[in-house]
Design brief:
By secondary structure, the chain is an alpha+beta fold. The chain has a single domain, classed as CNF1/YfiH-like putative cysteine hydrolases (4-Layer Sandwich). The chain is built from six helices and 14 strands. The strands form three sheets. Strands 4-5-8-7-9-13 form a six-stranded mixed β-sheet. Strands 1-2-14-6-3 form a five-stranded mixed β-sheet, with helices on one face. The longest helix has 15 residues. It starts with 6 loop residues before the first strand and ends with a strand. The relative contact order is 0.21. The model has no long low-confidence stretch (mean pLDDT 96).
């Protein structure tokens, strides 16, 4: 019997088609075994296509999947129709007010953020690695949602599986770059081994959302690095000298009216 797709959901997004998926429930094999949805991996294209189909079916059967070509930017695009894979815009966030679409972002340690204004019926999804997070990808997503009629005080957001602070060691230069952006950013770094620090990516994203005036924020506290049975992790694969790494997907859409 095939393993079911594991879906992690957020209380603040209850009533909306959404989910933070991991690696369980897919057909890929080898180092990317499971529900690998990464188009840029060395995985069999047919396996990735099937995994994406399973992901959509687990959240909103019959919906059309919209994704972007992620480049660690702070750019958000408004979606009215999905793009062919070869024509996906270079961006790291999406927003829509169209039912029947599922917005998807793929991650492998970066933070996936799903957002919604249920009253205005507007949703968004953001891929927040450290570059995009400090550059303002969540702020860009909120702005795009407001352009569609959302109000930030009504927007709720959830942060899915990402690398936890205990797993995210960085050097002093990394910490200095964040402090140059804003002195208060020092609070997101804990002391590590000599000359190194532990960065709290999830906590930083929460703080950016709070500063933007988001109504409710729910971090799921799921560590991609520390749970290899459930999640893909770029850093874990690098530390293990593996030749490739999988990507998981996070999805959100709007129910029919």
């Amino acid at each position: 019997m095939a393993e079911p797709v594991e879906v992690n959901r957020a209380r603040v997004l209850e009533g909306l088609p959404h989910g933070f998926l991991g690696r369980r429930g897919g057909v890929s094999n080898g180092v990317v075994a499971g529900l690998n949805v990464g188009l840029g991996t060395g995985d069999e294209p047919k396996a990735v296509t099937e995994n994406r189909r399973r992901a959509v079916a687990a959240i909103e059967p019959g919906a059309r999947l919209a994704t972007v070509y992620q480049v660690h930017s702070a750019d958000c695009v408004i979606v009215t129709e999905p793009w062919p894979d070869a024509e996906r815009p270079h961006a790291d966030a999406l927003a829509t007010d169209r039912p029947g679409l599922l917005l998807g972002v793929v991650t492998a340690d970066c933070a996936p953020v799903l957002l919604a204004d249920p009253v205005a019926r507007v949703v968004g999804a953001a891929h927040a690695g450290w570059k995009g997070a400090v550059g303002g990808v969540t702020d860009a997503t909120i702005a795009a949602m407001e352009a569609l009629g959302a109000e930030r005080g009504r927007i709720v957001a959830a942060i899915g599986p990402c690398i936890a602070q205990t797993s995210y060691e960085v050097d002093a230069g990394f910490r200095e770059r964040f402090q140059e952006a804003m002195a208060d950013n020092a609070e997101f770094f804990a002391e590590g081994r000599q000359g190194h620090f532990q960065f709290d990516l999830e906590g930083y994203v929460v703080a950016r959302l709070q500063a933007a005036g988001i109504g409710a924020i729910e971090p799921l506290h799921l560590d991609t690095y520390g749970d290899p049975g459930r999640f893909f992790s770029f850093r874990r694969a690098t530390h293990r000298a593996e030749p490739d790494y999988g990507r998981q997907i996070s999805l959100i859409g709007l129910p029919p009216q």
